[in-house]
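TA notes, week 10

Several of you asked for a full example with nothing omitted. So below is the full record: structure tokens for the whole chain, then the designed sequence directly under it. When grading your own attempts, check the secondary structure regions first.
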């Protein structure tokens, strides 16, 4: 019996292509990636929660001793009141002349989320706002861990996450403020850039731009990195990646969109900047900041502790940024932290919230996280423990002894 002849093939015949994964398969794979990422980050997230819970317990005990309520301090005080008012009544329709009274200075995403969630859940909008902030802080801590893990491994990532929860004004992460939401959007936008997910990066940066005035720093980080990637790709291959272009163009839409909307609402192109002027927030290149620093450090014999801490935070943040430059952190992290420092230090106006404005600048903590991991165990414990205890104590001091907002 003759051997079986090999199958006749046509050189023009192509093997059938594999069908693309179905939506259900892609969704299952995405769910598995999320679960793996959460499992890897779980110890760091537990450490973060432990630090912040300790802060709440100490604040609760101290508040009880002084006859103050814990819930109003966290859910309805200072800026929380402004966001709840926007969720309840909407935005002002006129500029006015009164200082520190126009709510158009506050960006819309957080109050919109509070109103939307409160509309479908029981409880007050103040409760929803606080719980939303706590949930966003956990998402932010997860994103911070993901960035640290990608750059330096799990140990540095865990240290970075806990350090973020141990900054001097970390108490605002569990208040009805926007810092937690903004940091969550920032962290995952930067992570998306680092992993090449440009549409996600641009979309998250646009949402960050709808959350805080400093959202422009996230947009800049995404857009500048996108332009750098496009330029390098064009020089090497004469090719343009449309996803990179889309991400870079999407990133600033949130911030510019809100600024444009305020201008239309007030009937003047500079409407948003006119509102900020009423809040005494104007760019002066850092002259006002330097005057305040000099006043507290050189001329006041007994300066207020809170303002001294704010001053120290600003100085240390600049030093940490220089270390980040020396360590050659990835471009998006350097652009974000550099412009954030430039905005915070270079703007005039009220001085006391400057440390809070830097809470989203978690990449600045990377040099400390690296040093902690490389140090001897005793030194690492002392540094982490010291930062945690000082943050817990200062959070209680901020609410009960400091007379202004954090």
């Amino acid at each position: 019996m003759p051997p079986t002849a090999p199958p006749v093939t046509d050189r023009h015949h192509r093997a059938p292509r594999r069908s693309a994964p179905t939506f259900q398969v892609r969704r299952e794979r995405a769910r598995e990636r999320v679960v793996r990422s959460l499992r890897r980050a779980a110890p760091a997230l537990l450490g973060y929660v432990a630090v912040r819970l300790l802060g709440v317990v100490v604040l609760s005990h101290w508040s009880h001793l002084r006859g103050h309520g814990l819930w109003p301090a966290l859910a309805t005080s200072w800026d929380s009141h402004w966001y709840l008012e926007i969720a309840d009544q909407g935005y002002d329709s006129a500029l006015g002349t009164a200082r520190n009274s126009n709510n158009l200075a506050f960006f819309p995403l957080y109050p919109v989320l509070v109103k939307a969630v409160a509309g479908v859940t029981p409880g007050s909008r103040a409760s929803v706002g606080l719980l939303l902030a706590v949930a966003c802080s956990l998402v932010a801590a997860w994103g911070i861990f993901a960035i640290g893990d990608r750059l330096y491994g799990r140990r540095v990532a865990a240290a970075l996450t806990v350090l973020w929860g141990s900054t001097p004004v970390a108490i605002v992460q569990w208040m009805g403020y926007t810092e937690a939401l903004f940091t969550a959007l920032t962290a995952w936008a930067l992570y998306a850039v680092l992993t090449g997910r440009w549409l996600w990066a641009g979309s998250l940066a646009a949402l960050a731009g709808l959350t805080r005035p400093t959202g422009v720093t996230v947009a800049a980080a995404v857009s500048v990195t996108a332009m750098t990637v496009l330029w390098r790709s064009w020089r090497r291959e004469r090719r343009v990646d449309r996803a990179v272009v889309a991400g870079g163009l999407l990133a600033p839409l949130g911030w510019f969109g809100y600024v444009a909307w305020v201008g239309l609402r007030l009937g003047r192109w500079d409407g948003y900047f006119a509102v900020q002027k009423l809040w005494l927030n104007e760019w002066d290149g850092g002259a006002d900041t330097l005057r305040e620093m000099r006043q507290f450090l050189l001329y006041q014999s007994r300066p207020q502790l809170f303002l001294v801490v704010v001053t120290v935070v600003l100085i240390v943040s600049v030093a940490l940024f220089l270390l980040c430059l020396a360590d050659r952190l990835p471009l998006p992290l350097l652009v974000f932290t550099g412009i954030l420092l430039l905005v915070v230090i270079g703007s005039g106006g009220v001085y006391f919230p400057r440390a809070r404005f830097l809470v989203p600048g978690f990449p600045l903590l990377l040099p400390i996280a690296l040093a902690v991991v490389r140090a001897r165990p005793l030194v690492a414990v002392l540094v982490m423990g010291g930062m945690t205890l000082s943050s817990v104590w200062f959070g209680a001091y901020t609410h009960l002894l400091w007379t202004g907002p954090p």
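The chain is about 70% helix and 0% strand. Use that as a sanity check on your answer.
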